[in-house]
Amino acid sequence: MTLSDLNRDDWTRFSFRQRMQRYGVFALCALAIGWALGSIEVIWAWVWDAPAQMGDLFGRMVPPDPTNLAAILRVLWETVNIATIATAFAVILSLPVAYLAAQNTTPNRATLWIGRFILVSSRSINTIIWALLFVAIFGPGIVAGIVAIMFRSIGFVGKLLGEAIEEIDKRPVEALEATGASRFKVIAYAIVPQVMPTFWAVSILRWDINLRESTVLGLVGAGGIGIILQGAIDTFNWPEAATVLLAILALVILGEIVSAWLRRRIL
């Protein structure tokens, strides 16, 4: 019997059991969402009034005040430096972690779990939380911001590099090992060439992400353009806050352009 001989009513994509399972999952999701909405305290009067408040706030921001533009540009450059330095250190430190976290390169089971624990602990804590911690250790300033972004980035870069190492072609590695090559030569000539495209792609992507994250570190005293933004908000200087927001938007757009150019040139 061919497919054309079958009645359309007799064919379905999912069986009855599969449909029931899907409906059950949808019902559980709906219950979870309903429970979450019912368990939080929302002042709905403020929610309905939000559009009017947003219109009033944006009205106070117009026109932006460029009086402090020189200081804004100086701190904006500091923000770029924070992202760049933190990314460079994170990439360097993530290389041995990625080596340990990859199943085909880690020396033993213990080092595998050590590497993965570092990756998980780095990615599980938000950059702002890292910044709060390091502001308490190093004091307010760009050092705390650099270390915070660096710690956050190690998990991101290390995880993607570790996955790239696990997916390499094993034949070059086995060929070098068969000739009696040292472990260093195996890494340098069999593993590194295969993961270099991923290395550059991940590094550029992480720099782009860090550029965005570094713009808010100043809100917790970790340096960058966020310091001026927080000061403008605290003093209700909304025209200056608008200028800072426009500067951040321009920085993010410029970062996208630079990232795309680097990917075209390197990859």
From TrEMBL:
It is a multi-pass membrane protein. GO terms for cellular component: plasma membrane. Signal peptide: none annotated. The keyword Membrane applies. Keywords: Cell membrane, Membrane, Transmembrane, Transmembrane helix, Transport. It holds the Pfam family BPD_transp_1. The keyword ATP-binding does not apply. It is found in: Cell membrane. Residues 76-259 form the ABC transmembrane type-1 domain. GO terms for molecular function: ABC-type phosphonate transporter activity. The chain crosses the membrane at residues 23-47, 82-102, 128-151, 186-205, 217-236, 242-262. InterPro entries: MetI-like, MetI-like_sf, PhnE/PtxC. Belongs to the binding-protein-dependent transport system permease family. PANTHER family: ABC TRANSPORT SYSTEM PERMEASE PROTEIN P69 (PTHR30043:SF1), PHOSPHONATES TRANSPORT SYSTEM PERMEASE PROTEIN (PTHR30043). NCBIfam families: PhnE. This is Phosphonate transport system permease protein.
